[in-house]
Structures are given as structure tokens and as C-alpha cells.
Design goal:
alpha/beta; Rossmann fold; 2 domains; 7-stranded parallel beta sheet; 3-stranded parallel beta sheet; 9 helices; 19% strand
């Protein structure tokens, strides 16, 4: 069993599968940004292509390592000698679970914020996850739905831990009417229009198509919808809003 020396800083390594801007990426960045630096020595390995969220870590002074190959990644991990390792995303979990076991690391925690970014959940996606679950201490997810889905398919219930996403409410405030008017003017939205906002990557799993279907029923009402985000589905969603006769009401800023 790998022991943690609590008389010195606890070394924690986070291995990320994405450096893009998204829910899971933002949540984990906020977690690391607020981590007690006096008690923890935190590093991040980005096992992915370079992305915009890396700059967030640079600004916060959190040390990151950009993957340039499996051997260099392993050398970085062995040099750091982390007490705890967090793995994010299915690909990262399946790749690093056996490698870390062979390297002698036992305090490994997986994190899964969703089951898929596609329309259907793959058969092997679940099987491989379950078969390698013995290499994890805990598997953290942010929803009961994901935890139940994994449990029903054989994932050990005692290893599943649900930790819901937090919201830093101090970042949000109600806008003054003059501020709302300025934003509407900038986005080309009529001043008397009710604004409906949807924030999220434009992927099929997010369900934007259902929202556009619902909005088409309300097409006679005075509203404007903001689809805030980007992704492969953008052109398709624009086409659907045109076919539904609400293109003038649906904005993709």
C-alpha cells in the first residue's frame, strides 16, 4: 500500500484528457486554483493536444507538463513521485490505470463527468471501464445518473463517489437594465425581446436540437435565443433553426 507522508506537502498529480474550454475542464481548474498550496503540491499533466485552458494554469502559477510522448510522461511522473493521482476522461483512465499500477502507484482516482459525447454509449466503453476498475481507489462522477449507469453494468458500487459540481456564486450578479440594453444592441437583439440563453459545447449529447424544437413551438412569441458555445454541430443547428422558421430568433455568438 502506498503511504502518504503527512508531515510534508501531499503531492497530487492531475492527468487531463483535454485542454479545451468545457465544463469538466473548468471545474477541475477551479478545484486546483482553490487548493491549499501550503498543504498540497499540485501538478498537471496534459495528455492531449495543446489547448486554451493551459493559459489559465500559467496565470495561476500552477505547474503543468505538456505530453510529448509516453516515455517522457513516465519520466515526469517518476521524478515528481505523486502521492495521489487523478485521471480525467475515459481514454486517459484506460491508458494510465495499468501503466500507473506497473509503476507502483496505488492511490489512483478516476473522474468521469459524463458517459459520452456521441449519440450512443459504446459497448466496449463500459466493458473496459468495468474490467480495469480494480486499478482505482475511487471513481468520482458528478451525477447520480452516471454513477447508477456504471453500477448497473458491473462497476463496483463501493468505488463510486458522487461529488456534485460547485458554482462560485460570487461571479454572478443581476445586470442593470442599461447593461442589458447595451448587450442586446451589440448582439442585434430587439430591445423588448425576452432572451433565452443556453451555454454549452455544440455537441449532439447536449441536446440543443430539442431546445430548437421547443422554441419553434413558441415562434409567434417575442424572444431571442442565444446558443453560447462552439462545436461540430453548429452548422447543423443553424440549418435546423432555418428549417423550423426561427433562424432570425436563434443566435450563435
Amino acid at each position: 500500500m502506498q503511504e502518504i507522508n503527512r508531515e510534508k506537502k501531499i503531492k497530487v498529480l492531475h492527468i487531463h484528457a483535454s485542454a479545451e474550454i468545457g465544463g469538466a475542464e473548468n471545474i477541475t481548474f477551479e478545484l486546483l486554483r482553490k487548493t491549499d498550496k501550503g498543504a498540497f503540491d499540485v501538478r498537471v499533466l496534459f495528455d492531449c493536444i495543446k489547448g486554451p485552458i493551459m493559459s489559465y494554469y500559467h496565470k495561476e502559477g500552477i505547474e503543468i507538463f505538456e505530453s510529448t510522448g509516453i516515455l517522457k510522461d513516465i519520466r515526469f511522473i517518476l521524478a515528481f513521485k505523486p502521492d495521489i493521482i487523478h485521471l480525467y476522461g475515459l481514454r486517459t483512465n484506460l491508458k494510465w490505470r495499468p501503466i500507473l499500477m506497473l509503476l507502483g502507484f496505488r492511490n489512483v482516482i478516476g473522474a468521469m463527468m459524463g458517459l459520452t459525447n456521441t449519440e450512443k454509449i459504446g459497448f466496449w466503453r463500459i466493458k473496459l471501464d468495468v474490467w480495469t476498475s480494480c486499478l482505482l481507489k475511487k471513481y468520482v462522477t458528478n451525477s447520480r445518473k452516471v454513477a447508477d449507469y456504471l453500477k448497473d453494468r458491473g462497476f463496483p458500487e463501493e468505488k463510486l463517489e458522487i461529488i456534485y459540481n460547485g458554482i462560485e456564486t460570487g461571479k454572478f450578479r443581476a445586470l442593470q437594465e442599461t447593461e442589458k440594453e447595451q448587450i442586446k444592441k451589440r448582439l442585434g437583439i430587439p430591445p423588448d425581446s425576452v432572451v433565452i440563453s443556453c451555454v454549452g459545447n455544440l455537441r449532439i449529447v447536449k441536446g440543443h436540437g430539442f431546445l430548437i424544437d421547443a422554441l419553434s413551438i413558441l415562434k409567434r412569441l417575442n424572444f431571442s435565443a442565444l446558443m453560447i458555445g462552439d462545436g461540430d454541430l453548429k452548422d447543423t443547428l443553424i440549418k435546423i433553426s432555418l428549417e423550423k422558421g426561427i433562424k432570425v430568433k436563434v443566435h450563435f455568438p
